[in-house]
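From the methods appendix. Each design record in this collection lists the tokenized structure first, followed by the designed amino acid sequence. Records were kept in a plain field format so they could be parsed without special tools. The example shown here is representative of the layout used throughout.

RECORD:
FOLD TOKENS (441 positions):
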């Protein structure tokens, strides 16, 4: 890459910021165009009065040693090692998350418990073909009964799709826990097994997940333009030559990194792409999330990082309490909880106040809080929370990526740009790799 040229980055979420950070480490200039008024994307931390909370239950997974070391370097003593397990709320009982057979057996009726043990032992003797759907992964890992009780309903509520129409990758590494060794260890020795993050051990910044990205934008090689929506990518068929910002300013570009949702990117190409490609891009769907925040006049709501609610009659999938990630996120005598409510962005007519009232009323019924303890409420919208990975996605993406590969200076990075279930550690790894590649050009 020539010394005086810069990388133009579309979107200032984790992928955009990580790309600009790794570029700055190599003394490469970059400029980020971000539509909203702050960087961080879906990983922002919001400060409201004396409370800090993230846009969704975020934590840093220690899954890639190099990335973890980089985060430790960036945050220093602001990064906390947390131990805070999560629970599943089922018929007024709390079960361990991820599911543990001993715990399940002591909570469910005897006949159901025996069926679950039988199915899981039988599973150990079977040889399975590689699973094609989430439903198959769940059955292979937990058996039918357990899957139907806890996994299918939760998954279908979260993704808004039947679990036999979703790809196995939506499990995100969470369904690897019930093998013969773990069943025996738990049944006969009541021992826990499984990976660290599944057991509730993770890293978390003192003042919220978003501070990771806030701490990565301090180099003179980085430039940030906020409130700058990309509205067009102008191309000559082989390269992206210019970008248009806020439907007015046009800028010449050399290397360009897009973290925008892939359907938007295709829509923004000018001259416009043919109708068939546009239709494919439009058919890719995202799951939206309403984040309903309740500030409470009590020191703690629970002692869990998150509580999962598989029951489909309850509108939220999960409640998390930032204070159980870092005690610095709320005053000593108060706490805050965030309920995650999935929705279809293309069909949304949800009334936020009605939703909040419904959440408070359910939590009162379950004796989890009193209405009088609620100090303030707020609702945030994430229309691009999760790319919906259904069975047709692979074929559609192949067509779109093949088409985009003609633009030799365009690089896609991030969760919605790649339409993949990625976490921060994946994004950091990919951004670092991309900058290595670009710097050699
Ligand atoms: C509820 C929830 C929980 C999660 N938990 C974890 C977790 O525990 N750990 C973890 O590592 N990850 C977690 N994730 C995933 C993580 O949030 C994503 O991996 C990450 O946000 C993806 O970053 P990104 O930059 O690819 O996209 P985004 O965060 O979506 O950022 C994209 C950015 O592009 C901007 N943009 C969009 N359109 C335009 C435009 N036209 N012009 C300019 N800018 C534009 C947006 O405003 C946004 O800032 C979770 C996600 C959710 C929804």
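DESIGN:
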């Amino acid at each position: 890459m020539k010394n005086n040229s810069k990388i133009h980055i579309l979107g200032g979420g984790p992928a955009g910021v990580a790309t600009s950070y790794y570029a700055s480490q190599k003394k490469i200039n970059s400029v980020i165009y971000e539509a909203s008024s702050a960087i961080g994307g879906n990983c922002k931390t919001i400060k409201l009065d004396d409370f800090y909370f993230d846009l969704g239950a975020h934590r840093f997974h220690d899954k890639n040693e190099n990335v973890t070391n980089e985060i430790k370097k960036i945050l220093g003593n602001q990064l906390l090692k947390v131990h805070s397990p999560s629970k599943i709320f089922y018929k007024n009982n709390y079960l361990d998350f991820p599911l543990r057979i001993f715990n399940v057996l002591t909570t469910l009726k005897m006949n159901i418990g025996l069926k679950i043990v039988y199915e899981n032992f039988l599973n150990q003797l079977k040889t399975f073909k590689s699973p094609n759907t989430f439903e198959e992964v769940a059955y292979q890992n937990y058996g039918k009964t357990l899957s139907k009780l806890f996994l299918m309903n939760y998954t279908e509520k979260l993704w808004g799709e039947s679990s036999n129409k979703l790809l196995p990758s939506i499990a995100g590494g969470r369904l690897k826990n019930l093998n013969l060794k773990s069943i025996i260890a738990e049944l006969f020795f009541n021992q826990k097994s499984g990976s660290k993050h599944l057991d509730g051990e993770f890293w978390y910044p003192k003042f919220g997940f978003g501070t990771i990205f806030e701490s990565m934008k301090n180099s003179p090689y980085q430039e940030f333009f906020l409130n700058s929506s990309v509205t067009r990518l102008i191309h000559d068929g082989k390269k992206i030559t210019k970008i248009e910002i806020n439907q007015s300013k046009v800028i010449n570009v050399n290397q360009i990194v897009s973290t925008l949702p892939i359907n938007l990117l295709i829509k923004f190409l000018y001259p416009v792409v043919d109708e068939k490609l546009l239709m494919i891009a439009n058919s890719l769907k995202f799951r939206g999330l309403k984040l309903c925040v309740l500030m409470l006049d009590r020191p703690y709501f629970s002692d869990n990082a998150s509580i999962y609610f598989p029951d489909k009659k309850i509108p939220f999938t999960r409640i998390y309490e930032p204070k159980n990630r870092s005690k610095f996120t709320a005053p000593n005598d108060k706490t805050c909880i965030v309920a995650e409510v999935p929705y279809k962005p293309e069909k949304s007519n949800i009334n936020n106040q009605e939703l909040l009232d419904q959440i408070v009323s359910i939590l009162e019924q379950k004796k989890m809080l009193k209405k009088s303890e609620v100090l303030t409420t707020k609702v945030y919208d994430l229309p691009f929370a999760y790319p919906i990975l259904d069975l047709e996605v692979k074929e559609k993406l192949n067509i779109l990526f093949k088409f985009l590969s003609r633009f030799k200076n365009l690089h896609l990075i991030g969760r919605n740009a790649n339409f993949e279930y990625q976490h921060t550690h994946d994004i950091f790894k990919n951004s670092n790799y991309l900058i290595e590649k670009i710097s050699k050009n």
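APPENDIX NOTE: The mean pLDDT is 92.
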